[in-house]
Structures are given as structure tokens and as C-alpha cells.
Amino acid sequence: MRNEYERIAGSQHNLNENEFQDLYQFLEHLANSTYHNFRNIPNNRNIIVLLDRLKLTPNIYQELIYNLTGDNTLRTKGDLAIATDKIRGTSGDIIIQTRQILTEYGLCYMTNTMLSEKFTSQYMIWGSENYNDVKGVENVLEVKHSSYFDSDVSYNFLGFGNKPIDGFLHSAFEVMQVDHNLGYTNEPLQVDVECMEIITEDGFEKDATISQRKCRFQHESNLTHYPVYSKNICIQECRLNLVYDICKCIPHFYPNRIAKPKPICDYRTLLDCFVQHADYFIKMYKVNKDGGRDTVPCYCVQNCRDAIVNKRAKYHMQKTNDLVGGNSLLFAMINLPTYRLKRQIIFSFTDLMVSIGGTAGLFLGFSVLCLVEVIYYFTLRVFFYAVKAYFGRN
Fold first, then answer.
1. 329-332 and 165-168: which strand pairing?
2. What is the mean pLDDT of residues 192-211?
């Protein structure tokens, strides 16, 4: 971010050294701000003057951060030649595609995901999908799939240089949670995980409504600010609405490309209202006078397809930065799963009809033929008598 900032700030706005440093520190803290650390955003008279002079209004905070940060993921065939400089997942000779996303921690990178390609920072900020011409390349995968008989069930998340990174662990059908991070690390980190997959049977989506199955597929989004659905994304939107109700604006890191965009908070509101209610916003409940919890109403159903992913252990691989090509996250599944969960329809509409027919036949001596006769007697038979009577009078 600093190199691009130096180019723009120095060449276009003639900032002196003090102004340069003040604005850089402000933007750096703003880009890395979230509910835990809004209080660290610099606040002084120089910042107010600079923002006014440069016309940096809250509604362009995130666009500015995006333009200064850039997207360093591997997306073109030309990037394959300099893959060591690009952020990507790897497994042996295989490269796993990575995307930049917009989260409650600002701009982050995510790899090995099954979410729609609309869940990217570029789409959520600008409304356009990322250009990507490495699809179909032999050694490039969108998601790494493994079976019980595979010897290698791991991958490495590379391309961060020697900068400290903070990691999040979640399933391929989910996104990070603001309060479930692995912690910052200056050295490569190995995380041993265990996983249990949740799948659905054929026809599960069309044979049951959302209220019946009590889960959603990602394309069944009922959310306002996000183009896809997952339970964690739904919780983020609940938090967004809670923040808006209390502070009358939302932070810059939430997507806001909707018919009636919500106001974006300026940094002084982040320092005031958000710091004051930070714990409430994160936990989404308050402890009342009786010691109970007043929980924020948030009705988010499960993902129909998902995986339960748990961290078993994590290890800092000390002094291995040069060996693995910089700071990285290594995810490994040591104990392979031996079972999985499957969502299926136990009692369908067809089963209901068969059950009704069987019950009627057993207790009433009633069959389909009897049903036809009843319909004939009360409809067609009456109709024929009416027609006969009519023609008889004529």
C-alpha cells in the first residue's frame, strides 16, 4: 500500500513530509480497522484539514483503500511466470486460485472456496467480476478436492512476503467471523484441522422449501447487501443493521451497492459511537440487569451444503521464511474424516399421498377407484342428468 500511496500523494497533491506521514498513518489504520481497533484511528486537527483539502469523504473510503492496496492475486496466465510474487494457494505442483474479498476486517484474501465468483472485493465495491484467464489451465484449481485414499490432504497459502499476517479458518462454503481469527504471525504457521462434510441428496433443493428444510443454498440469498448467502454472511448483515440502528451509518468495509445506500460513517463516528458499543456489536447481545442476555434478533438458517471445520493444533514453523518463500499458512488434515452428514427428505409429498391412501384403505375400505366413483357421482353424473333434463324439455 505504501508504494502506491507515495506515488499518488507525492505526485498529485504536493504534500509536505508531515502531511504525508499523517495521511499515510490515517489510511493505514483505516484500512486495517475493525470493531476491535477503531480506537487506534488517528484523530487530530491535521487529519481534519487534510481530508477536507483532499475531499476524502466517507463514501469513497473503501474505494480509495482498494485503489491504494491493489489486488495481488494470481489471475492471468502472465502471472504464472511470476507466481512467487502472487498470493495463491499451492499443493505440490498445483496452484489453487485465490481471490481478494471484502470482510469486516477490510480487504482480505481467501483461497480454496466454493462461494460464487460474485463474492469478491471488486464485485462488491464496483459491481464488476474479476478478469481471470487461468481457468482451465492444467495445474490451476479453483478448489482442491481430496478423498480418503489421497496421501496429500494439505495446501499452503503463499505470497505474503515477510509481512505479518492474520489467518482465519472456515469451511469452503463460508467466510470468516470477525472474532474467530488465528492471531497475527511473523513466521509460517501450520494449522492441523479436522473436517466433517455436510452434503445433500439429489432433488433436495427442489423437493422442499426453505422453511421445510431450514437451510439455504448460496444462490438463495435473501440478503440486501450481499449477492450470495451463507450463515456467517447473514450474521454480518444482522450486525450491519444493528450498527445502522444505533450509529445511523455503517462502516466503510461493508458492501453498499443497493437501491437505497446507507450513509457511510466518517472516522470520528467510528471513534465515538463504535468504540462505545464495540463489545455489543461483536457479541450481538447485552447482559441485562437480571444477568440474562438480550440477544439481537437475527434469523440466519444453516447452509444446506457445508463442512464443520475445527482447529486441532497450530505450530509456528520458526526460521522457515526463506525455505517456504516468505510468511505463509499451511493447512493440513492429519486425521482423515471417516463419516459425513447428509441432508435428505425423510417424508415427501408422495409419501404423504401414499400414507393417506394406505390409511384410508385400511380403516375405511377406501381406494382410488372409490375416490373416482365419488368424484363421478358428485360432478359428472350430476352434469349428465342436467344435460339430459335440458334436452328432454326441448
1. unpaired
2. 91
- The predicted-structure confidence for 140-162, as pLDDT tens digits, reads as follows 888 888 877 777 788 899 888 88
In 150-292, DSSP assigns E strands to 154-158, 165-168, 181-185, 189-200, 215-216, 285-287
Cβ within 8 Å of residue 300, ≥6 positions away? 231, 234, 235, 238
* Long-range contacts of residues 118-122, Cβ cutoff 8 Å, at least 24 apart: 118/227, 118/228, 119/175, 119/226, 119/227, 119/228, 121/66, 121/71, 122/66, 122/71
CA distances from 69 to 86, 111, 288 (A): 14, 18, 42
Burial of 239 (0-12, 13-18, 19+ CB in 10 A): buried
Report the C-alpha gap between 317 and 111 in whole angstroms: 21
- pTM of the model as a whole: 0.84
Contacts of 169 (CB under 8 A, 6+ apart): 180, 182, 191, 193, 309, 311, 331
